[in-house]
Amino acid sequence: PYDIEAAVNYLMRDPMVDHDKLILMGASIGANAVLNYAAGNTRIATVVLLSPGLDYKGLSTVEAMKKYAGRPALIMASEEDTYSAESSQKLAKIGGSKVTYLAVKDAGHGTNMIKAVKTFDDDVLGFIYRTLVPKKEE
Q: Is the pTM above the cut of 0.85?
């Protein structure tokens, strides 16, 4: 979480960064770290969590998701990565209606999903677009 805090602080000094639309993405234990950081920082607009777990090396997520709940999140896990898939489903349930859980197949763990999921870019960017771009009034 301290690495994430340092990165966010760096971004906050950049006048070109929209400080109200910060997006954090992490994989495996990095997903847990991202969620824990975002839970305590309401400036984070959304998170993308690849293969999170309920607990990786003492970095747990249940309480963090309870605190984060009500804000948008995309959680992705590969079905054969059973620990992460089960953890992801539980986290999505805790997070509520603004959390999107995307189960993928044969995509491995963490950053392996980036190459293994053919629609990865569209899935993640589509989620971010739907989440952060205001809808036009008809």
A: yes
